[in-house]
Amino acid sequence: DIQMTQSPSSLSASVGDRVTITCRPSQSINNYLNWYQQRPGTAPRLLIFASSRLHTGVPSRFSGSGSGAESTLTINGLQPEDFATYYCQQTYSVPHTFGQGTKLELK
Amino acid sequence: EVQLMESGGGLVQPGRSLRLSCAASGFTFDEFGMHWVRQIPGKGLEWVAGVSYDGTYTGYVDSVKGRFTISRDNAKNSLYLQMNSLRVDDTAFYFCVKDRLGLMSGDFDSWGQGILVTVSS
To answer: Are the beta carbons of B109 and A91 separated by less than 8 Å?
Structure first.
């Protein structure tokens, strides 16, 4: 199985900040990578698929990029509703494994 | 609006069986792959099983192979997960999830609210 390692595990930031979360797969996944947001008590929500494609309805302050060994999720201009946990996921092969999550907290 | 409503969860003893159901609405069910994803309370996400739009292809995480069976009834817009030989470590919230595509791409674009399965004696 492909292991997905996210960093950092937690992150403190303020409204308006720019933050970046990194995901590193244990082997090449050819940018078959998604990002999800999960607010407390709710189901996850797809933000980005195929490394950089914004899912319908997701604000443009979210962006994703990938370069072989590493992928990043960037949020430009944090909003109060963005404080949540973020997961990366590879869809290159089954099982579609997730990272351990990054909890974004208000500073 | 896509709606996915899970049912069938609850408390069950180790070794027993449980069947989860998911009622889907708001989209053309027989055009999309479907999945079950689970989450231990307070922990991360784990893909459990997936099925293609027509039920031809299925896939499972190793830890449930031979114990869980995913299936779908397109006439009823419903997804199922038959869980046999349940273990304590199967305890989790189980989410019914819609795929962005017809085959199991793994792009989970709509989620149910989740249902809790607790395996305990």
So the answer is: no
Q: How many CB atoms lie within 10 A of CB A14?
A: 9
Backbone CA torsion sign across A70, A82, B106, A60: negative
Q: Which residues of B touch A45 (CB under 8 A)?
A: 111
pLDDT tens, A45-102?
999 999 999 999 999 999 999 876 899 999 999 999 999 999 999 999 999 999 999 9
**Partners of A106 in beta bridges:** A13
Q: Which residue has the tokens 């689970």?
A: B38
Cis peptide before A59 (omega within 30 of 0): no
CB contact residues (below 8 A), chain A span 57-96, against chain B: 87, 89-91, 94-96
Q: Could you tell me if A66 and A51 are in contact, meaning their C-beta atoms sit under 8 angstroms apart? A: yes
Q: Residue B45 and residue A89: Cβ atoms within 8 Å?
A: yes
**Cα torsion angle, B27, A41, A81, A18, sign:** negative
Q: Checking phi first, is residue A101 left (phi over 0); if not, alpha (psi -120 to 50) or beta?
A: left
Helix (H) or strand (E) holding B58: strand B58-60
Query: B97 to chain A, minimum CA–CA distance in Å?
Result: 10
